[in-house]
Amino acid sequence: MIPLIQKYPAGTGLKDLTTSVQRVITYVYNDGQTAAPTVTQTVSFERKATFDQVTKVVTYMDWRTPESALTEAYAVVESPIIAGYTPNATRVASVTVSAKDTESRQTVTYQANLETATVTYVDATTGHRLGTSVTLTGRFGTQADYQPTTMIAQYTQAGYVLMGSDYPATGVTFNQAGVVQKYTVYLAHNKIVITAPDQLTKTVHYQDQAGHTLQADTIRALTFTRSGMKDAVTGVATYRDWAPTGLNFTAVSAPTIAKYHALTATTQAVAITAASADDVQTLTYALDVPTPTKPVKPTKPAKPTKPTTSDDLIKPTTKPITAAKPTQLTEPATVVKDFQATTGNQTPAKSTRTLVSSRIKAVKTAPASAIIKPGSKVTEPAHKAQADTTSRLPQTGETRRSEAAAETLGLTLATLLLGFGGLKRKRHEK
Question: Which pLDDT tens digit goes with each residue over 10-24?
Answer without folding.
Answer: 888 888 899 999 999
